[in-house]
Amino acid sequence: MKIKLLLFSCLFYISSHSQNTYNFGWWFDSTNQQISIEVGDTVEWTWGPSGSHNLVKLSGPEPGFGNSQLFGPGHVYSHTFTTEGVNTYDCSPHPNSMYGIVTVNPSTASLTDDSTFSFSIYPNPAKNYINILINQASRSYTLEIFDMLGRLNISHLFESTTNNMFDVSNLNPGVYTLTISSKNNKYSKKFLKL
Q1: What does the pLDDT read at residue 180?
Q2: In a domain, 13, yes or no
Q3: What is the DSSP letter of 139?
Q4: Most buried of the four, 33, 94, 104, 117, by CB within 10 Å?
Q5: Using CA atoms, how far apart are residues 155 and 92, in angstroms rounded to an integer?
Q6: Which of 78, 105, 132 is the last residue of a domain?
């Protein structure tokens, strides 16, 4: 009975935390793959029509990512990413034509023990400032802004009011993920910086 309960718990955890699956080819035309996903997403690579290849992690925080064993056409390698950050990889026999980056961003799925929490960002797109409208005032939060490569650009601890203004004028134009964290919860939304 304990084993069945453990298996059920593991399956529930995996199914509730795996958000999306992305499929990519892995062959000689896989030069400079740029993959941007969220924590909990899965990436699958399918080997191309000829040659023997592997997919080896070169750098990054993701545990267990990559496999140095060579496989032939049609092989599928799959990995569910659990750690935020930038991971580089290549095919060790063909590093000049088969390489890429997986950027793992914070999940937009919230850890919910506070189902009434919500926030919005405006204006979106933003030029110099963003306003964050929070439905619950008088709490301590941490605001973090990540770029599409998963790099932390802004981190700020603040006591919320219903409307909070933050300077984003020093950010380069692009898409950013804004994360608001409280003691046990993390909430994320994307915004565009002009």
Answers
A1: 87
A2: no
A3: -
A4: 104
A5: 37
A6: 105
Picking from 105, 133, 156, the residue at the C-terminal end of a domain is: 105
Domain residue limits at 130: 119-193
Dig out the tokens for 140 from the structure. Answer: 């301590």
Model pLDDT, residue 106: 83
Residue 58 dihedral angles phi and psi, to the nearest 5°: -95, -40
Residue with tokens 């409208």: 133
d(CA 146, CA 164): 18
Amino acid at 116: T
Asked if residue 125 and residue 47 are part of one domain, the reply reads no
Q: What pTM was computed for the model?
A: 0.51
Residues 6+ apart with CB under 8 A from 177: 105, 106, 108, 145, 146, 188, 189, 190
At 53 the three-state DSSP class reads: strand
Residue 182 in domain? yes
CA 143 vs CA 64, 161, 186: distances in Å:
29, 13, 10
Rounded CA-CA distance 102/33 in Å is 8
**Considering only 90-99, 111-120, 152-161, which range has the smallest mean pLDDT?**
111-120
- 123 and 87 in a single domain? The answer is no
Q: Domain count for the chain, please give it.
A: 2
DSSP string, 111-179: --S-TT--EEEESSSBSSEEEEEESS-S-EEEEEEE-TT--EEEEEEEE--SEEEEE-TTSPSEEEEEE
Give yes or no: residues 124 and 153 share one domain.
yes
Q: Find the farthest-apart pair of alpha carbons in the chain and give their distance in angstroms, rounded.
A: 60
